[in-house]
Design brief:
RNA-binding; six-stranded mixed sheet; Rossmann fold; 3'-5'-RNA exonuclease activity; single chain; alpha+beta; RNA binding; nucleus
Length: 943
């Protein structure tokens, strides 16, 4: 049976366009009930149990109560297709969680295609709003279930929409609110998971919560402007739109990048943030210029001052501070200050970025009586997040736990946002618990791979078949002396090399990359999972794979002495490392050795070794040195970072030792050929697919971004030319002093001024914007790590299509989808980096908890009440206080901005003591806990 339905949609130009869709209606769609005697159940699983009420969930229940629905106590639910479509349009993250529920064999959530069933199809009426249409479609489907199942089952519509519930009752449909239904289950702990409407949750608990902190004044926020007024204000230039970024080390200071004024607008204090969270898209109004604040030197934050938002008024770059430091305002008088920058206040929220947060409850005494709701304040581990008020019946069980809390609302009369408890992670301080917190905070998916994903893998044991070797598209390179060089203990080996001397005096050099796309096919569950995960994540004690271990450690890993499938880039090079020719081929290889960096370096350094493998290593290293110098001559930067390496106990997984990661020539050799392969592949795919290639760019830093580096350099008499990457590279090369660590410190400071490199679709930008600043390369991509990065999987598909090996998958015809993939890859890559850093911080705390240490440190930033130091031996950075909270001594500390030093003036106003940037000092390091459940590594100056 054919029916038509009329829908309205908004075009990109903003016009409303009517669409008429023809729908084929069926009468054989299974209802999902196990005991149904009408439907044909021979080929369908029966998830719904008619012994329990069948729940028909409306859109708002799915959108707002997803944390509750994921609890196993809520089951036996029908998900109508009309509801799922609306959820998908409004919140893709919630939609994905609901789809996961519907495909979980352990849960009873059944998707019913009500829009395609002849008895539940509803035609849109003229003048009917989308909301009214959806409500009517839900009621029609619920009534059909009641009639269809009769007395065999109880069918209950769950809705919090008062009009919908009232209309359902008038139509003879059983309906209930989610709150009432949960109470009927007799499980009080489920009530903690409920999202309360703002009107029900704000006023009833305000007095209780404010009483928790009777000395703090109540903050009343300004009302947010309606969307219509915001739109008009943006159009007229009265308001400015952008993403709010809260300073990671000063939660009372935020930035909104505004294209309309071409500068960052600084937001000071929670009042001016006006209930905006980090990541929210906001509308900002500029304050009068006489209210703009001067750029004063920051002080290092006192942990106990975090709620005093009326005094936290010092601007800085959001990424200016080290990872272990909180920064707040300068209460002292500075000797120099710089011009003020635009300041503003948030007048409206355009798009919220609320999600779940990890942390613990603020310690409090247990109230009298048990079993009743108690108000408590949740403190996130992320200092950028304000405290969140929750109500719980489980206070006694939650006080010593790390828990997850979601935000529900933030009323303008409330100092804190309101939220609800989601689940317990584990005991505070437990290493496994704190590691899971790292993953949750950075949105890392560490769940086991589903059965559908694992079903995509070839059976084990797997080996190269005769068909693989005979395939005309694949070259047999098993006779080549191929080898890999990786970190010690590496199991997911995705790259290998070979170097063969040619009769003409040149070299054939090959980079061989695991042929992951031979096993990961577009559109499969395996491909979908890899696309969502985006990258493998490397924590101190474990690795979270993008692909299942049978692929990463066996089938695709280029292990020694086994045949493997590869995608190869092969050059002919002169002894001067000039590329004569380049070719790409799918191949079969057999690695003769899987070396660690240390082993490869030892071979190259041992003059007694003259075997073919060692000779190949030396030839590659000689070529790599020339290639590296040529890159530097073109303007590539040689930067540095404070990479930390832990020695981990294999049984307890606790750190046994900590130190800076050592880079050897062997590391640089491998890196050079991987860079060259990526550049060659980037040119090939861009030439063949100019509008849909996935490339990687590194934007040129602005003068403002480089200002902290320039100020430090000027203070120590160093002249840095930042007019181009070549000029900066040359300046860094000449930044040499007697101090052997001086140059590395300068390079670390330079690294921190750079933007992140990002993936992008070539059709989204013009060729000049493709440039990679750090590598001084006009074209660059990622090809060499498809086991660990989904970007490389995409590039492998592009390269194969460019060679006529495979057809280009349909996704490459959809620019918006490609852009969305690139955005997700950037998001996942950034999160993986942040998770790795957080894991290092966690294990640093564990290591020093029982190991107080005295060591040497270097001052890298001056602040008004101390300075920030870098500890070379351990790769750690943190604050050193020169004054305690409210401390007054025999003199005052002053910051000399120009000389980058902090000076203590005695009573005669002459210098008595000073500390300068890059100066060496002795410090004491130990773990302390100034606030409950917030341990930190404290660095103290040794006189």
């Amino acid at each position: 049976m054919l029916k038509s339905n009329t829908f309205s949609r908004k075009t990109k130009a903003g016009r409303i366009k009517k669409e008429v869709r023809e729908i084929y209606l069926r009468d054989d769609i299974y209802c999902g009930a196990a005991a149904c005697k009408t439907c044909d159940t021979s080929t369908s699983r029966a998830p719904l149990d008619v012994a329990s009420p069948l729940l028909i969930l409306d859109t708002n229940v799915l959108l707002h109560q997803i944390d509750l629905l994921e609890n196993s106590a809520i089951d036996n639910a029908v998900l109508l297709s009309v509801v799922l479509d609306e959820v998908k349009n409004k919140n893709m993250a919630v939609y994905n969680r609901i789809r996961a529920l519907s495909t979980n064999p352990l849960r009873k959530f059944y998707v019913f295609s009500n829009q395609f069933h002849k008895d539940t199809f509803v035609k849109r009426m003229d003048g009917e709003t989308p909301n009214d249409y959806n409500d009517r479609a839900i009621r029609v489907a619920t009534r059909w279930y009641q009639t269809h199942l009769g007395t065999a089952a109880t069918v209950l519509l769950i809705t919090n929409d008062r009009d919908n519930k009232r209309t359902a009752g008038e139509e003879g449909i059983s309906a209930d609110t989610i709150q009432s239904y949960v109470k009927s289950l007799g499980q009080p702990e489920l009530l903690d998971l409920l999202v309360q409407p703002a009107s029900e949750s704000e006023d009833t608990v305000m007095v209780e919560v404010e009483d928790l902190r009777p000395s703090k004044r109540q903050v009343v926020y300004q009302e947010h402007k309606p969307m219509s007024e915001i739109t008009l204000g943006l159009h007229r230039g009265i308001y400015h739109q952008g993403k709010l970024r809260v300073n990671r080390y000063n939660p009372f200071q935020a930035y909104v990048g505004s294209e309309s004024i071409g500068d960052e607008i600084i937001i000071y204090g929670r009042q001016n943030m006006n209930r905006a969270f980090d990541g929210d898209i906001v509308a900002v109004e500029l304050l009068p210029q006489d209210q703009w604040h001067e750029e004063k030197n920051l002080s290092i934050a006192d942990e106990e001052d975090e709620e005093e938002d009326d005094v936290h008024l010092a601007p800085s770059s959001a990424d200016d501070a080290p990872r272990t430091t909180n920064l707040v305002s300068d209460s002292a008088t500075d000797m120099n200050s710089t011009p003020s920058r635009p300041s503003g206040r948030v007048v409206g929220i355009i798009k919220r970025n609320w999600h779940s947060y990890c942390g613990s409850l603020e310690p409090m005494s247990m109230p009298a009586g048990t079993g009743s709701f108690t108000s408590a304040l949740f403190v996130s581990k992320d200092h950028r997040i304000p405290k969140i008020r929750i109500q719980t019946r489980q206070l006694e069980n939650l006080l010593d736990k790390r828990i997850i809390v979601a935000v529900d609302s933030w009323d303008r009369q409330s100092r804190y946002p309101s939220g609800h408890y989601v689940r317990v992670i584990g005991e505070i301080g437990d290493r496994d618990t704190e590691s899971e917190v790292v993953l949750i905070e950075n949105d890392i998916n560490s769940r086991p791979f589903s059965s559908q994903v694992l079903a995509c893998l070839p059976p084990l044991p797997w080996s190269v078949s005769s068909e693989d070797v005979a395939n005309s598209i694949r070259q047999d390179l098993r006779s080549l002396r191929v080898f890999s060089v990786d970190p010690p203990g590496c199991k997911d080996i995705d790259d290998a090399l070979h170097c063969t001397a040619l009769p003409n005096g040149n070299y054939e050099v090959g980079v061989h990359i695991a042929d992951v796309t031979n096993f990961v096919h577009p559109g499969t569950p395996l491909d979908g999972e890899a696309s969502q995960r985006g990258t493998s994540v490397y924590l101190v004690e474990r690795r979270i794979d993008m692909l299942p271990k049978p692929l990463t450690e066996d089938i695709c890993s280029l292990r020694a002495d086994v045949e493997r499938l590869a995608f190869s880039v092969i050059w002919e090079m002169t002894p001067d490392a000039e590329i004569i020719s380049t070719r790409f081929t799918k191949s079969v290889i057999k690695s003769c050795a899987a070396l660690s960096y240390v082993e490869a370096q030892a071979r190259m350094d041992d003059s007694r070794l003259m075997d073919p493998l060692t000779t190949d290593l030396r030839n590659l290293n000689a070529l790599a040195k020339i290639m590296r110098q040529r890159r530097i001559d073109r303007g590539a930067l040689t930067l540095a970072s404070a990479e930390v390496k832990f020695q981990i106990d294999t049984e307890t997984h606790d750190p046994l030792d900590i130190g800076m990661y050592q880079i050897r020539e062997a590391n640089q050799m491998v890196e050079e050929f991987m860079l060259a392969a990526n550049v060659s592949v980037a040119k090939q795919i861009r030439d063949c697919f100019p509008s849909c290639s996935l490339l990687r760019r590194h934007p040129t830093p602005t003068r403002e971004m480089l200002e902290p580096l320039l100020c430090t350099a000027a203070a120590i008499g160093l002249d840095l030319d930042v007019s181009s990457s070549k000029a900066l590279a040359d300046s860094l090369d000449h930044a040499v002093r007697d101090d052997p660590y001086f140059n590395k410190l300068i390079r670390i400071l330079a690294t921190r001024c750079m933007t992140q490199a990002v993936y992008f679709c070539s059709g989204d930008l013009s060729p000049p914007e493709y440039h990679h600043y750090g590598l001084a390369a006009p074209l660059y991509t990622h090809f060499t790590s498809p086991i660990r990065r989904y970007a490389d999987v995409i590039v492998h598909r592009l390269l194969a299509a460019s060679l006529g090996i495979d057809k280009l998958p349909p996704v490459f015809q959809d620019r918006s989808q490609l852009t969305s993939i690139a955005d997700n890859l950037n998001y996942r890559h950034r999160n993986a980096q942040m998770a790795s850093r957080a894991s290092v911080e966690l294990h640093t705390l564990i290591y020093f908890r029982k190991r107080p240490t005295d060591t040497e440190a270097r001052i890298v930033k001056i602040r008004s009440n101390g300075f920030i130091v870098f500890v070379p031996k351990y790769g750690i950075e943190g604050p050193v206080y020169l004054t305690g909270r409210g401390e007054k001594g025999s003199g005052e500390w002053h910051v000399d901005e120009q000389q980058q030093k902090i000076v203590k003036m005695d009573n005669s106003n002459s210098n008595s003591l000073s500390y300068s940037v890059l100066q060496s000092v002795r410090i004491h390091m130990e773990v302390v806990e100034p606030q409950p459940n917030r341990p930190k590594l404290q660095l103290t100056l040794i006189s």
